[in-house]
Amino acid sequence: MRWPLALALFLAGCGGRGELYLEALKPLPLVSTGSALVQVVPQTRRAVVVTPGETTPGALTLTAGARLARRVPGTELVAVLTGTPREPKLDLVDAFTGAVETLEVPGYFDTITWSQDGQFGVLAYASGAASGLVARNLNEVGLFSVALRTVTRLQLDTESLAPRAIVFGPEEPNRRLVAVTLERGVAVFDALHPEVAPRRISLRPPGSTLESSVAEAVFARSARWLFLRASNLDDVIVVELGPEVGAPVSASLNFVAGGQGLTDIEAPPDTMGDTVLAVYAASRDAWLLDARGIQDNAKRLAMTTSARSVSLLSGNRALFWDGSSTSLTAWDMNDGRSGTVQLDGTFSLPLVVPSLDKAVFALPSATGGAALSTVTVVEETNRLRLKLQSIQLAQPFTAAAFDSATQRLFFTVSNTATLVTMSLGTLQLSEVSLDVPATGLHYLPQGDWLVAEHAGTLFGDVTVLPAGSTDRTQARRYRDFAFTDDLNRPGDAP
Fold first, then answer.
1. Which range, of 4-8, 9-13, 310-314, averages the lowest pLDDT?
2. Exposed (0-12), middle (13-18) or buried (19+): which is 240, by Cβ within 10 Å?
């Protein structure tokens, strides 16, 4: 019998303390910050912090009822939804200092969506999620200000149920717009002025009875426009937002036409003016559409094969692809140059690195077996050339982590315990063998650590080593750390 199981059985029979372990331990998924890993164990009310270089993990006491843990971007903070349906809470764990703050929350929310800079989070309900409540108002959200440590209740006042997605607009001098996409429309509010009622925007064109739901929302980089892609519509819905501060933002709609079969939209760089980039699978083209609908300002890229997705590269360039195809297309939206390349097989979702004009595609099966293909967009006089380089893999690609500062990709393949480091700039490779295969990877920039997560136990099993190291003696394995501090519980708060 493994000692964690024996320990669990022992604790379950320890009189009053055994009441804590009447349920099987089910830790939440690991959360990585910049310097540590955090494992939340709801049944023991613990947040276990694993810091590379330290021999023993630390344990912090949480409010009962933990059900979701998410890192606040760019910080050492982990937000944990806790409490009961009658008394919901938000615990804020600082993985660096070991402090835990508990905040009141206006609803028993299921999800958290963060702004990219980590200044705000929106707490919302997931439609159909089990909560222990007979009735819930799915039309309300909670706005969490990280700096102020406040959670403000907002009523969206729409006929829709739960939000589909939450999108933050760019920073402005005196406001920060947030769009909440819904089944039948979108609601926009200002995170810097949560006391102002949200603006409700319906998507139905005048005189139309067609039901459309929002599939995607993108803010323009100027925050003047909100672009929407909706079901059953090929037009891009353009919402022109007013400059109001301290009052509900004004909004006017325009439906901008391009091709057929709209599948993706993106906000181009500011250098392209007030435009939106749209991808159409059915007509096999991409359009740069004027936000005001002026057709003379539109630009079109005709493609030989259909594309469904787009990502921006550096400058005015964009990369298009379809996961069910082998074709990639690059386009310079400013001067019209383009280029195409064929991969050796279909691929999974790529890693796009705009600063290198490069994308990495994992091919589970290709000519010669599994592969990792890199595509670099290179400028030539009359076209864009897509330079293809491939790395042969012994098995299909599985887990990965990326260091954006040094442009290193760390990855593993199935059925092996080998960890690979690849420099995206030079494609130089190095390998190190672990004790067991990794099912997940985490990169911790503070200290330049790489963490490999292993399967096979619910109680925690990771290997930590310096990123890029080829010396396995530098690796340290932490096992069964979900039990940290479980025999030392005097003074636990009720």
1. 9-13
2. middle
